[in-house]
Amino acid sequence: MDNNDILRRMRYALHLRDIQMVDVFKMAEEKVSIPEVRSLLLKDSDEDYLQCNDEIMEKFLDGLIIKHRGKQLRMVADIGVYKMETRYAFQ
């Protein structure tokens, strides 16, 4: 099973239309048009078939995560500073 099969099955399972898939890609900051989405959903024997590589699949999955739980802020912490602050806080 390749990425195109997975993408087709996810679209079916989540009841996503073409425009909704474009919006999911857009949430992950990937510009994909409706004809490109349709080409990704075709079988490999079709003329306009577009291979869904790992990067495209990753963007789609990232977009789904953002769609369902929202965009998360990234927290950057220096572990050494954090340990030092907690050590002094508990003494």
Structure description:
The chain has 91 residues and is mostly helical. It has one domain. Helices cover 62% and strands 0% of the residues. It is built from 5 helices and no strands. Helix 2 packs across helix 4 (54-69). The longest helix has 16 residues, at 54-69. The radius of gyration is 20 Å and the shape is elongated. Mean pLDDT is 85; it is low at 83-91.
Determine the structural class based on helices, strands and strand pairing.
mainly alpha
Annotation, overall tally of beta strands: 0
Q: Please give the alpha-carbon distance between the first and last residues.
A: 57 Å
How many H/I helical runs? 5
Residue stretches low in confidence (pLDDT < 50, at least 5 long) are 83-91
How does the overall form come out from the CA principal axes?
elongated
Helix content: 55-70%
Number of domains: 1
Strand content: under 5%
Order of helices and strands: HHHHH
Task: Average the pLDDT over all residues and give the rounded result.
Answer: 85
What's the gyration radius in Å? 20 Å
| Largest sheet features | none
Attribute tags:
elongated, disordered C terminus, 5 helices, 62% helix, mainly alpha, 91 residues
Briefly summarize what is shown:
The chain is mainly α and 91 residues long.
Give the secondary structure arrangement, pairings included.
Elements: H1 3-14, H2 18-27, H3 34-40, H4 54-69, H5 79-89
Helix pairs in contact: 2-4
